[in-house]
Amino acid sequence: MPRISVEVDGVTYEDDVEPRLLLVHYLRDRLGKVGTPIGCDTTNCGACTVLVDGLSVKSCAMLAVQADGRQITTVEGLGLDGERHPMQRAFHEAHALQCGYCTPGMIMASIDLLRENADPSDEEIREGLEGNLCRCTGYQNIVRAVRDAATEMRRRPEREVAP
Questions:
Q1: What CA–CA distance (Å, rounded) separates 18 from 30?
Q2: Please, which residues have CB within 8 angstroms of residue 68's CB and are 6 or more apart in sequence?
Q3: pTM of the entire structure?
Q4: pLDDT tens digit sequence for 52-97
Q5: Which pairs from 86-90 meet CB under 8 Å and 24+ separation?
Q6: 67, 56, 80: which is closest to 12 by C-alpha?
Q7: What's the rounded Cα separation, in Å, for the pair 143 and 146?
Q8: pLDDT tens digit string along 127-161?
Protein backbone atom coordinates (compact mmCIF):
# COMPACT_ATOMS: atom_id res chain seq x y z
CA MET A 1 0.00 0.00 0.00
CA PRO A 2 1.25 3.50 -0.78
CA ARG A 3 2.27 5.71 2.13
CA ILE A 4 1.12 9.31 2.08
CA SER A 5 2.01 12.37 4.09
CA VAL A 6 -0.59 15.14 4.14
CA GLU A 7 -1.17 18.23 6.22
CA VAL A 8 -4.82 18.49 7.18
CA ASP A 9 -6.01 21.53 9.12
CA GLY A 10 -2.45 22.26 10.22
CA VAL A 11 -1.59 18.72 11.41
CA THR A 12 0.65 16.35 9.44
CA TYR A 13 -0.56 12.78 9.00
CA GLU A 14 1.35 9.84 7.57
CA ASP A 15 -0.71 6.82 6.61
CA ASP A 16 -0.73 3.77 4.41
CA VAL A 17 -3.74 3.97 2.11
CA GLU A 18 -5.26 1.80 -0.56
CA PRO A 19 -4.59 3.28 -4.01
CA ARG A 20 -8.33 3.64 -4.75
CA LEU A 21 -9.31 5.32 -1.44
CA LEU A 22 -11.11 8.60 -2.10
CA LEU A 23 -9.91 11.67 -0.24
CA VAL A 24 -13.39 12.23 1.27
CA HIS A 25 -13.30 8.75 2.84
CA TYR A 26 -9.74 9.28 4.10
CA LEU A 27 -10.74 12.56 5.73
CA ARG A 28 -13.91 11.20 7.32
CA ASP A 29 -13.04 7.59 8.14
CA ARG A 30 -9.35 7.83 8.97
CA LEU A 31 -9.03 11.36 10.34
CA GLY A 32 -12.52 11.90 11.74
CA LYS A 33 -13.10 15.07 9.72
CA VAL A 34 -16.83 14.49 9.51
CA GLY A 35 -17.54 18.15 8.75
CA THR A 36 -16.84 17.16 5.13
CA PRO A 37 -20.07 15.39 4.13
CA ILE A 38 -20.44 12.74 1.48
CA GLY A 39 -23.11 13.96 -0.86
CA CYS A 40 -23.31 12.27 -4.21
CA ASP A 41 -19.91 10.57 -4.74
CA THR A 42 -20.15 11.72 -8.37
CA THR A 43 -18.87 15.35 -8.17
CA ASN A 44 -22.34 16.72 -8.88
CA CYS A 45 -23.24 18.33 -5.55
CA GLY A 46 -20.03 19.84 -4.13
CA ALA A 47 -20.93 19.08 -0.50
CA CYS A 48 -17.51 17.45 0.01
CA THR A 49 -15.49 20.47 -1.20
CA VAL A 50 -12.23 21.10 0.65
CA LEU A 51 -9.23 23.31 -0.08
CA VAL A 52 -6.14 21.55 -1.42
CA ASP A 53 -3.19 23.91 -1.45
CA GLY A 54 -5.74 26.74 -1.21
CA LEU A 55 -7.86 25.66 -4.19
CA SER A 56 -11.33 24.17 -3.90
CA VAL A 57 -11.52 20.48 -4.77
CA LYS A 58 -14.41 18.05 -4.58
CA SER A 59 -12.88 15.43 -2.31
CA CYS A 60 -15.02 12.66 -3.81
CA ALA A 61 -13.14 13.21 -7.08
CA MET A 62 -9.62 13.01 -5.67
CA LEU A 63 -7.79 9.96 -4.45
CA ALA A 64 -6.01 10.14 -1.11
CA VAL A 65 -2.73 9.20 -2.86
CA GLN A 66 -3.12 12.32 -5.02
CA ALA A 67 -3.07 14.41 -1.84
CA ASP A 68 0.39 13.18 -0.87
CA GLY A 69 2.56 16.16 0.06
CA ARG A 70 -0.33 18.61 -0.13
CA GLN A 71 -1.98 20.93 2.39
CA ILE A 72 -5.68 20.28 2.92
CA THR A 73 -8.11 22.52 4.76
CA THR A 74 -11.53 21.29 5.79
CA VAL A 75 -14.36 23.40 7.16
CA GLU A 76 -13.19 22.28 10.61
CA GLY A 77 -9.79 23.88 10.02
CA LEU A 78 -11.09 27.37 9.27
CA GLY A 79 -10.89 30.27 11.68
CA LEU A 80 -8.13 31.69 13.80
CA ASP A 81 -7.68 31.93 17.55
CA GLY A 82 -11.06 30.36 18.27
CA GLU A 83 -12.94 32.78 15.99
CA ARG A 84 -15.00 31.67 13.05
CA HIS A 85 -13.63 32.42 9.62
CA PRO A 86 -15.41 35.47 8.10
CA MET A 87 -17.18 33.17 5.64
CA GLN A 88 -18.48 30.92 8.43
CA ARG A 89 -19.68 33.96 10.35
CA ALA A 90 -21.38 35.43 7.27
CA PHE A 91 -23.20 32.17 6.51
CA HIS A 92 -24.47 32.11 10.10
CA GLU A 93 -25.49 35.77 10.21
CA ALA A 94 -27.17 35.77 6.77
CA HIS A 95 -29.03 32.51 7.53
CA ALA A 96 -27.44 31.01 4.42
CA LEU A 97 -28.46 27.48 5.30
CA GLN A 98 -31.48 25.42 6.03
CA CYS A 99 -30.67 21.73 6.39
CA GLY A 100 -26.95 22.57 6.38
CA TYR A 101 -25.80 19.58 4.36
CA CYS A 102 -24.30 21.65 1.54
CA THR A 103 -22.93 24.35 3.85
CA PRO A 104 -19.36 23.06 4.36
CA GLY A 105 -18.83 22.71 0.61
CA MET A 106 -20.46 26.07 -0.09
CA ILE A 107 -18.22 27.77 2.46
CA MET A 108 -15.05 26.19 1.08
CA ALA A 109 -15.94 26.96 -2.55
CA SER A 110 -16.84 30.53 -1.54
CA ILE A 111 -13.45 31.04 0.09
CA ASP A 112 -11.74 29.92 -3.11
CA LEU A 113 -14.05 32.17 -5.14
CA LEU A 114 -12.95 35.19 -3.08
CA ARG A 115 -9.31 34.19 -3.49
CA GLU A 116 -9.82 34.64 -7.23
CA ASN A 117 -12.15 37.64 -7.05
CA ALA A 118 -12.21 39.68 -3.84
CA ASP A 119 -15.24 41.75 -4.89
CA PRO A 120 -17.58 39.61 -6.98
CA SER A 121 -20.98 40.71 -8.22
CA ASP A 122 -24.03 38.65 -7.33
CA GLU A 123 -23.91 37.09 -10.80
CA GLU A 124 -20.21 36.23 -10.38
CA ILE A 125 -20.97 34.62 -7.01
CA ARG A 126 -23.73 32.51 -8.52
CA GLU A 127 -21.49 31.52 -11.42
CA GLY A 128 -18.57 30.77 -9.11
CA LEU A 129 -20.69 28.46 -6.96
CA GLU A 130 -22.50 26.68 -9.79
CA GLY A 131 -20.71 23.39 -9.02
CA ASN A 132 -22.19 23.35 -5.51
CA LEU A 133 -25.85 22.49 -5.14
CA CYS A 134 -28.30 23.46 -2.43
CA ARG A 135 -31.74 21.90 -2.41
CA CYS A 136 -33.20 24.07 0.36
CA THR A 137 -32.31 27.75 0.26
CA GLY A 138 -32.91 29.18 -3.18
CA TYR A 139 -29.36 30.62 -2.94
CA GLN A 140 -30.43 34.19 -2.07
CA ASN A 141 -28.95 34.10 1.43
CA ILE A 142 -25.88 32.21 0.24
CA VAL A 143 -25.13 34.98 -2.26
CA ARG A 144 -25.73 37.56 0.48
CA ALA A 145 -23.38 35.70 2.85
CA VAL A 146 -20.58 35.55 0.26
CA ARG A 147 -21.01 39.25 -0.49
CA ASP A 148 -20.94 40.10 3.25
CA ALA A 149 -17.86 37.93 3.83
CA ALA A 150 -16.12 39.54 0.86
CA THR A 151 -16.74 42.98 2.35
CA GLU A 152 -15.37 41.91 5.74
CA MET A 153 -12.36 40.19 4.23
CA ARG A 154 -11.47 43.28 2.16
CA ARG A 155 -11.87 45.45 5.26
CA ARG A 156 -9.71 43.15 7.38
CA PRO A 157 -6.87 42.14 5.05
CA GLU A 158 -4.80 40.87 7.99
CA ARG A 159 -7.19 37.91 8.16
CA GLU A 160 -6.30 35.16 5.80
CA VAL A 161 -8.58 34.72 2.80
CA ALA A 162 -7.75 31.03 2.58
CA PRO A 163 -5.80 28.92 5.02
A1: 12
A2: 2, 4, 5, 6
A3: 0.93
A4: 999 999 999 999 999 999 999 999 999 888 899 999 999 999 999 9
A5: 86/149, 86/152, 86/153, 86/156, 86/159, 87/111, 87/114, 87/145, 87/146, 87/149, 87/153, 89/149, 89/152, 90/145, 90/146, 90/148, 90/149, 90/152
A6: 67
A7: 5
A8: 999 999 998 888 999 999 999 999 999 997 655 54
